[in-house]
Design brief:
Strand order of the largest sheet of chain B: 1-2-3-7-6
Oligomer: heterodimer
CATH class of the largest domain in chain A: Alpha Beta
Helix content of chain A: 25-40%
Strand order of the largest sheet of chain A: 3-2-4-5-7-6-12
Distance between the termini of chain A: 27 Å
Number of domains of chain B: 1
Shape of chain B: globular
Structural class of chain B: alpha/beta
CATH architecture of chain B: 3-Layer(aba) Sandwich
Radius of gyration of chain A: 19 Å
Order of helices and strands of chain A: EHEHEHEHHEHEHEEEEHEEHEHEHH
Order of helices and strands of chain B: HHEHHEHEEEHHEHEH
Chain lengths: ~325, ~300
């Protein structure tokens, strides 16, 4: 699998995107370069507001700016957008349904920063918040095109964003579409639904499973709330052996839970296997290490598929396409976090 | 010239008399309501009557209303998309670039704020009869559909951050009106308050102006026993704010501080007595946060006090 790597896809796309939107302002909480908006700040210094390490207050300032007709885009790590300032996010922004964009970087276990930096339950928490829209970026094309999708939504939007060295999985001329999954493979035995960085991981295993004769429908989901894409319900209705979800998040309350709700409500009656963080905190280690340790990798997908199919596929780690892993000390990142 | 000066002086005297009359009306209405409903935020009315009267009766440059408004029925919570909800901000008149805004932070002062709106011709007198009634907007803890509330601030300390954002936005738009925030002293226990004061001075929001009812009380009792916030003036000065400390029942002092020009964001600490105008409340000290009568005899004493006030 040959994959193009895009360095800092957010940086230039966001500068270009902001050019004709004078109402767009950026609020940052001391992670400006880490969230690829240092150059944005230097390009639009009058529209950039450093709020310091004070996320609760940043939510209120964003709310006030939004009430007055500005469109604030908050930039910090995912974990600092919902865990500490959840009451402020809810009462100051979500309740009045204000047009605020929460750009959360390093979702899930993408950071070696350990438990304090790992947003593993952000989707679960924010799916429960009324008026919120939740988007998750899966590659460089989506990192660039999520801007238009988020901008077009009237209420608050939380984005699980990607930064640094990011794979381009989807053609640059096929942008993210709100509430529409990408069909990456067509088949009837298994339905595999993935989001975020797990899509690339699944794409390592799926071609080999197909070579072994497994018929697979693979959907990449980038809109997690609302979760009403008819393509998902139709795929659930068609699949024969079972459904597997794969997310960079706890299996409680995220993509797997959303799919489980759809399956239960439609009375599908087929088995579901949820791959994700299994109700545990993680720790500081590389993404590759944590994905293997927590069972979030392509081998985990193959084992779950074998379970649903009731047979071994005879695929081992050596058969899988090499995972592209960004160097911890990549120059595309402001620091090793 | 002398005649003009006399006239100006006369207007000033009138204004202060009017404000004192508004303050008396606030206490009277809240006490009447508390008697009728066997419960109310009475001490907050006693402490903040002059402060709110000064705001609504003099300091705020907001649109006069042709006639008092009728509080609408509750029309639903805000949803994504076209706004259908009525905002409580309409009781402050239309927004304008040169006009002030008032964001009230302690939403449990709602009853007192409704009384102030009635006293200043913004809310119909019968509005208080709808207080805390199902399906209405005159809620016990005001939210942004409630008369006089522009934002939802019942989770304390969020108004000052929201107002900082509003003040910053208005500066970016070149608007000249001030953004006022009415706060209670208990909110200075919240960490967010200090984040907001820090950010507002950092961004030089001199169009932001805060007025605080420092009544020294909170739900659990006297603040110096629950968790002190003093020395508040020194702390705020250290955060880069211009601080004025006044007797919160001294109308002249509040007006003077409120009209001061300042290059820094300005905060007026109104030190108040939560039993002012109703000394009977002292018998309940320190349980002043909410007045509910424990016996018919107690209620009768308040009834008697009320009759003394309205005489």
């Amino acid at each position: 699998m040959s994959i193009e790597i895009v360095n800092r896809p957010h940086q230039e796309a966001f500068i270009e995107f902001s050019r004709d939107k004078p109402e767009l302002v950026v609020l940052s909480a001391d992670l400006t370069n880490s969230c690829e908006v240092g150059k944005w700040r230097d390009t639009y210094p009058d529209r950039f507001f450093s709020m310091g390490m004070a996320e609760q207050n940043m939510m209120g300032f964003a709310a006030g700016l939004a009430r007055e007709g500005f469109e604030p885009w908050l930039h910090t790590f995912s974990v600092f957008l919902y865990r500490r300032p959840l009451d402020q996010l809810q009462m100051s922004i979500a309740y009045p349904a204000l047009k605020v964009r929460l750009m959360g970087f390093l979702p899930g276990i993408m950071t070696p920063g350990g438990v304090t930096h790992q947003a593993i339950e952000d989707i679960a928490v924010l799916r429960a918040v009324p008026n919120m829209t939740i988007l998750e970026v899966g590659d460089a094309t989506e990192a660039q095109s999520v801007l238009d999708v988020a901008h077009a939504i009237e209420g608050p939007v939380y984005v699980r964003a990607l930064r640094g060295e990011v794979s381009r999985l989807f053609p640059a001329n096929e942008p993210m579409v709100f509430n529409r999954a990408r069909i990456l493979s067509e088949g009837q035995d298994l339905l595999i639904i993935t989001s975020g960085i797990m899509t690339e991981e699944a794409m390592r295993a799926i071609p080999i499973m197909k070579e072994k004769g497994v018929s697979i429908q693979h959907l990449h989901v980038s809109t997690l709330k609302p979760f009403t894409d008819p393509q998902v319900t139709e795929a659930i209705a068609r699949v024969r052996k079972g459904v597997i979800t794969m997310e960079n998040h706890t299996i409680v309350g995220g993509l797997g839970s959303a799919v489980a709700e759809l399956m239960a409500e439609s009375g599908s009656g087929i088995p579901l296997r949820r791959i994700g963080v299994t109700d545990t905190y993680a720790h500081g280690a590389s993404q590759k290490y944590l994905m293997a340790e927590l069972g979030l990798d392509s081998i985990a997908l193959i084992r779950q598929a074998e379970g649903l199919l009731g047979k071994s596929l005879g695929i081992g780690p050596d058969d899988l396409a090499e995972l592209r892993e960004a160097s911890v000390h990549s120059t595309a990142k402001a620091e090793a976090l | 010239m002398a005649a003009e000066r006399d006239e100006a002086l006369h207007t000033v005297v009138d204004e202060k008399e009017r404000i004192r009359s508004i303050a008396a009306g606030i206490r009277e209405r809240v006490l009447a309501h508390t008697l009728a409903n066997n419960g109310g935020y009475m001490s907050q009315a006693c402490s903040s009557a002059e402060l709110l009267a000064c705001l609504y009766g003099g300091l705020l440059n907001i649109e006069q209303l042709d006639e008092p408004l009728v509080p609408p029925a509750f029309s639903g919570v805000p949803k994504v998309g076209p706004k259908t909800m009525t905002t409580g901000g309409v009781f402050h008149g239309a927004h304008g670039p040169h006009l002030d805004r008032l964001i009230s932070s302690p939403a449990h002062y709602a009853l007192v704020i409704y009384a102030a709106l009635i006293e200043t011709g913004r809310l119909e007198e019968a509005g208080l009869e709808k207080f805390n009634k199902d399906g209405g907007t005159v809620e016990m803890i005001g939210a942004e559909h409630s008369p006089g509330f522009e934002t939802t601030t019942g989770s304390l300390a969020q108004a000052i951050s929201q107002s900082g954002g509003i003040a910053l936005a208005r500066r970016l738009k070149g608007e000249t009106g001030r953004t006022w925030v009415f706060m209670s002293d208990g909110e200075f226990q919240e960490g967010q308050t200090w984040e907001a004061f820090n950010a507002s001075s950092f961004w030089g929001l001199s169009n932001l102006r805060v007025i605080v009812d420092v009544n020294g009380g909170q739900c659990d009792g006297p603040m110096d026993q629950v968790m002190t916030i003093e020395p508040l003036a020194q702390r705020l000065e250290a955060f880069g704010w211009a601080v004025r400390t006044v007797d919160g029942h001294d109308v002249d002092a509040i007006l003077e501080a409120g009209r001061e020009e300042s290059d820094l964001p300005l905060i007026i600490l109104c030190y108040t007595d939560p039993t002012r105008g109703l000394p009977l409340l002292k018998e309940r000290y320190p349980a002043l946060h909410y007045l509910r009568f424990t016996s018919d005899a107690e209620r009768a004493k308040y009834q008697e006090a009320y009759e003394g006030i309205i005489k």
